[in-house]
Amino acid sequence: MRNTSARGAYWRGFWAAAPFVLVVAPFGLLFGVVATEAGLNLVEVMSFSIFVIAGASQFAAIQLMSENAPTLVVLGTALAVNLRMAMYSASLAPHLGQAKMWQRALASYFMIDQSYAVSIAEYEEQPAQSLRDKVAFFFGAVTPTCLPWYGATLLGATIGQTIPPGLALDFAVPITFLAMIGPMLRTAAHVAATFVSVTLALLLAGLPYNSGLMIAALGAMAAGAQVEFWQTRRAG
Amino acid sequence: MSYSTAEIWFIVIVLGLGTFLLRFSFLGVIGRRQLPGWVLRHLRYTAVAVLPALVAPLVLWPQAAGGEPNPPRLLAAAVTLGVGYFSRNVLAAIGGGAVTLYLMLFLMG
Lengths: 236, 109
Description:
The complex is a heterodimer of chains A (236) and B (109). Chain A is an all-alpha fold and 236 residues long. Helices cover 79% and strands 0% of the residues of chain A. Chain A has helices at residues 2-17, 21-38, 42-52, 55-66, 71-81, 84-96, 101-109, 113-125, 131-160, 172-184, 188-203, 211-235. In chain B, 76% of the residues lie in helices and 0% in strands. The relative contact order of chain B is 0.06. At the A-B interface, helix 2, helix 3, helix 4, helix 5 and helix 6 of A face helix 1, helix 2, helix 3, helix 4 and helix 5 of B.
């Protein structure tokens, strides 16, 4: 009986997340192409998608590597892009925190924007379901969102080796990032953070070691947090 | 790019490990304890803080156009951002930007 309910939860997670394969697969494909064009070999490209499994930070790392940025700048920037994962981890902890250690470790590895968003929506809607069902739902949501990432990267890396130059692929990364930024501009605080980020990045572009990028990011985070603080104080 | 094989593997492994630790932080180690409000407030804006800073110089001074502002790329960037903002659809925005870029590059030869 408990098995049946867990199996049901797994498939509910699977079908709730299934549409996101349309987002994940093209992204993985593009990553494979861009990383190959940047000069990584097939094993290196695949190891990015297997070890890191976080699209935006992988694109950020490849972009900075193609600019020959210092290793520490590549790592600092790509990890900063993933800071939001700590927030996801905190918000999943009340629901999955009592699961077995190997389940929590595996769930952490597979924590991407899509598997997180689908699962947290389910947990908030039905908080009373058993731990077993919550875990099963999460891995159901992981299946169609995370697993295609590997295959799509492989396909992209294979295609990437045959793409002729002159296709203006230099602009694939900027377009990908801009496409992600557009939908993020939900509140005045997000817009303020973006504005500060762009302004500081352009003003400080001449600083050595891409350090302007890190300063711009820190300033923008502070700006977003400050605007949100003002707004909640006014509302409260 | 001019990294040695060892440097590339260093980046992949440290980035992979660091990303895992960020994901594992609360779920695996810190447990149910709540983050202070001001930390959460900052974390919420990491994506809109980092990505625009990364992308702005690439849009304004693209290497492929000799580091000078390039009308096809500027227009493609504006279309991508606009489609993303209004449709809330990442793939539609990528499609719109790519079509604009290739159309403009074709027209302006």
